[in-house]
Design brief:
28% helix; 447 residues; five-stranded parallel sheet; alpha/beta
Length: 447
Amino acid sequence: MVRVIVIGSGAAGMTAASEAKRADPSAEVTVFTEDEHIAYSPCVIPWALEGKAKWEDIVMHDADFYSKNRGINVNTRTKVTEVNDSERTVTTENGDVFQYDSLIIATGSSVFIPPVEGKDLQNVFGIKTINDGKAIESALKDVKRVVIAGAGVIGLETALSLINIGKEVTVIEMMSQVIPRIADSDMAAPIQKYLEEKGVKFVMNAPLKKVNGTEKVEGVTTGDTEYPCEMVIFATGVRANLAIPKMLELDIGQLGAVITAPTMQAYKRGRLCSNIFLAGDVVQCQSAVTSGATMSQLGSSAVKQGLVAGKNAVGFKSVSGPVASPWVSAIGDLQIAGTGMSEGLASWYGLEIVSGKATGLTRARYYPGGKELTVKIIADKCSHRIIGAQILSEEEVTGRINWLTSAIIEGVTAEDFAIRSENAYCPPTNQVRDVVLSAVDDLIKKL
């Protein structure tokens, strides 16, 4: 019987635990988590703040479900304080010691809150967990004005939700555009305009300098300007939780996360660990676009990695491949999605690129209800290989971005895509020749 211990109960941890038990029903699988809630999606928190989802509905399964239906022992509100891999033991904060044969670390990430003055005042929040969301919801009752630090997709989704419940919202972003790094300015600009029309105020090119107040938040300062508010929400990205990996002296990569093999096994001083596996936000990944490392702190990536880690922890040899990190966000009536590299990110990596773009409709022109659809595709100028894409519309962006993600992972050139791709056609769902193919045509002309 293989004894598997999983540290962490997010998408990666619970997927790994379930897959280990599925792959080897005789395995003894135990999960430890500091959280009181398990198996939930943090992505839905902005909509829960608006009341479109209930907190209790976010949690898909509780600890009792895993015990009764899957034979997995889940210990909530339990902190692991020591891991000894030479003895293969885990010790919890109350002194209990547990033995393992395989260890899966899925400790996830935490919101990065910059070290600014006033960050510890009352009504300053990160937005990552159900408890974060509930705390924000409770405090909102006495709040009129909210500042959101960070104009990434979570920050923008939260901004609109708070506008919809009657709050005054200002988004402060240190970059010159919304959704920086992963989206290009021409694709992100319509999102900012849409939110401004809804009432969201934006302050761009403005790092947040200070949170003002004595006990509670009274405002923020950026540059020489103060913006009054009663709440600050940091949506400034996340950083990997490395306490356990550092305790085990696992190799940490240049991006601030743990280096793993395709089998999701860790390395220690360059040598592969036979019995330590990781998954989720705590690891760095191999990019499908370049030869280097990348981060893919997405729920979809966490599940994919968790499946591999769980199966291999009980003796299998599955692998997880390079990632293109497709993402999608629904902001009111608009949907924006991306995959691979944006123009800005490609430039940062030193790649010379060419972009193609096309605008059409999500349905046949004669079928009612069609929405404008814009597709942008990015290729490496030298090889003509497709390395990124972004799509903006009011509907039907997810399937198209998944289509382009497969092309990126397979290393398809623009010319090959045009020759080998086909699209299904039905008037209520798309044009007879999809806008994606029109964007590829434009890309080929420019190449």
